[in-house]
């Protein structure tokens, strides 16, 4: 009875922040959280750019942004980007007012904007595509996401590292308390979502000062919560 009480108290202490409810475990046990991570060099990217124009009329504003987007998409297609790797959002059109003191608002024109998101499978070409955006009238780079194409493989490596970490911690704890493990009682796992590396670059960045994307690393992490039975 004493051994069981010690084991359960140990489990309760470790499970304070876990998603596994202590009340559901009716055997002597302990719980560990395993963490694993691997680093990967990005080999692809997703970038988002936009064009915004203000013109006297809504029609002129729309035509201006449509022209820039059409030219940019055409250039991307010519440079080998597949059409399904390019997503151009619908236009946003808003009236622009001037608010003079003690007078009625004055309509000054219309602001039109469109966003384009591009997936780049060959990271070496990223700066070329960004330069194309500048030449075609795109006037804003929203963000650049650096990613890996074989993401599932790195996730599996991180997951296995997390499992090994959970087992190592359990064995160390059991040994320290003079106990022995008797298998796995419960596993709690929620798949992690890798976070791509986010970058921003000024529209007027010089090519020689552009980020060396290939020199960066992405860290992919995973975790698992495991309840281990203790020998009675």
TrEMBL record:
Residues 1-23 form the signal peptide. InterPro entries: 26kDa_periplasmic_antigen, SIMPL/DUF541. One of its GO terms (biological process) is DNA damage response. Keywords: Signal. PANTHER family: PERIPLASMIC IMMUNOGENIC PROTEIN (PTHR34387:SF1), SLR1258 PROTEIN (PTHR34387). NCBIfam families: PRK11087.1 (NF008299). This is Oxidative stress defense protein.
């Amino acid at each position: 009875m004493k051994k069981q009480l010690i084991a359960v108290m140990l489990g309760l202490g470790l499970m304070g922040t876990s998603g596994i409810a202590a009340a559901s475990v009716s055997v002597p046990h302990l719980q560990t959280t395993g963490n694993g991570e691997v680093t990967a060099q990005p080999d692809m990217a997703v970038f988002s750019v936009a064009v915004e124009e203000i013109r006297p009329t809504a029609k002129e504003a729309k035509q201006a942004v449509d022209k820039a987007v059409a030219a940019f998409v055409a250039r991307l297609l010519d440079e080998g980007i597949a059409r399904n790797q390019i997503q151009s959002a619908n236009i946003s059109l808003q009236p622009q007012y001037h608010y003079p003191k003690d007078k009625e608002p004055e309509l000054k024109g219309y602001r039109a904007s469109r966003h384009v998101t591009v997936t780049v499978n060959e990271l070496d070409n990223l700066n070329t595509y960004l330069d194309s955006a500048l030449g075609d009238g795109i006037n804003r780079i929203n963000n650049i996401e650096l990613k890996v194409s074989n993401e599932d493989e790195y996730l599996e490596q991180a997951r296995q590292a997390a499992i090994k970490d959970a087992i190592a911690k359990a064995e160390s704890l059991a040994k320290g308390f003079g106990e022995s493990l008797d298998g796995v009682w419960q596993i709690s796992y929620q798949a992690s979502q890798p976070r791509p590396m986010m970058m921003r670059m000024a529209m007027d960045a010089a090519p020689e000062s552009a980020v060396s994307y290939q020199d960066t690393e992405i860290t992919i992490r995973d975790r698992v919560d495991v309840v281990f039975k203790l020998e009675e």
